[in-house]
Each structure stands twice: as C-alpha cells, then as structure tokens.
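Possible regression after last week's pipeline update?

I re-ran a chain I had predicted before the update to compare outputs. Posting the input and the new output here so someone can diff against the archived version. Not blocking, just want to make sure nothing changed silently.
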Amino acid sequence: MKALKIVGIVVLLYVGLVVGFESLLGYFQPSGDTTLVITTFDPDGTSQPRVVSQIDSDGQLYVAANHWPRAWYQRALENPNVRVAIGGQTRDHVAVPVTGVEHERVAAARPLGPIFRVLTGFPPRYFLRLDPREAGRDQLTE
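New output (post-update):
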C-alpha cells in the first residue's frame, strides 16, 4: 500500500510539472527567429492569435502542435483559413493537415528532444502545412 501511495505522489508531481511548464509557455509566449503568429478564427469570426514555431521543409511552411493545449490547432482544422505573421508581414494561408510520409519527413526535419518530451507530457505531435492563399486573394499588411 505504501508503494502505491509513493507512485501516486510521483504521478501527481509529474502532472503538476507538465501543467506548470505548459502554463508558463502559454503565458510567456516565447519568440525567436523561427516563431510565427498564427491567427485562427472561431465560427463567429473572433480571431485567436497563437505564437508557434515555424518549420521549413522542402520549400514548404509548417507548424506543429507539440503540446497538450491545442485549441488553435482544432480551430485551424475547423476553419483552415488562417492568418500568418512572420517578420512583420501578415499573409492569409490555408492550413492543411499533414499525414503519412509527409508527416514523417517533417517530424524528422524538426525532431523534439527527450527533455522537451518529458516536460510536455509526451503529447502526440500533429503538423499543419501552411499554403499561401491564391494570388489576388492574399492580404498582405506590413
């Protein structure tokens, strides 16, 4: 019984660590050379910006849902018309879910380290390819 309590305490501490780490990432929204802001839209048109890391692979732009909190990813699946801001430029894109061989290629292009995986609680990883909107329909602001 004592061993079961110890295991329970360790599990609770680990869950607390993951929740704390994910909360701090969400609060501080880290940024750098590979970050972009993806804006997704609720059904009522309300915009929801989120800082994510960009992945460039074979001339395509991708973003990854690497964390348990992924409401932005679900919104992009429901309404794939998203807005992407990189380096002061904002453009409209279409978010396309990535599967199969393309998923494996992108995952290999940007692997996650073991410490990151532990700190985030080993969430499944999903990718979106960001295809620019058709010429003439692309809105650019500086």
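Follow-up from reviewer: compared with the archived run. The first strand starts at residue 35 and ends at 41. Marking as no regression found.
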